[in-house]
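INFO batch 0412 | record 1 of 1 | parsing
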Amino acid sequence: MARGPRYRVPFRRRREGVTNYYKRRKMILSGKPRFVVRRTINHIIVQIVEAKPIGDIVLVSAHSNELRRDFGWLADTNNIPAAYLTGLLAGLKALKLGIKEAIPDIGLHRPIKGTRVFAAIKGGIDAGLKIPCSPEMFPPEDRLKGMHIANYAKMLRESDPSLYESRFSKYLKRGLEPENLPSHFERVRGIILARFGKAQYI
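INFO prediction complete | emitting tokens
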């Protein structure tokens, strides 16, 4: 362990590996609110956060559980389609409050092309927010709609029905056949857009 009169104890959050202060400083110096994307085992959380001397102020918050509670989402709340819809919801809430732009904050998530954090950012951009991000980082349109899940479910249903019922038991229990996920995604996206007075297709 480092010692000496010049040694400074790192901030607690840096010691715990939960905050990258170098990246945080650059984001704060931009003077713009942050489009914060975080994920847990079961959910996606998107917030618009503004840095103040007293601490971060959350201006807008969207949770993937809202998709199920308020918009009839029957699929999982932690997959790519759910991440996109949560980002879309956060973006629409932000626009309603007059927030027009933000910078992406993916925290300690690695910037890997096509992941859930970039699906959420794509949702925010499609809502109308100006968020600087390279389009090549976004998942393809078919993955945003859950086509990869639907194709896998269809293959599994034909080849191993028992494994199909086991792997997609929660979908089936909620009344959604996973092969129909893309059309379900479109329906829920339409409901979200209609709730905020937007056209069904952005």
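INFO post-check: Strands lie at 34-39, 44-52, 55-63, 103-105.
INFO record closed
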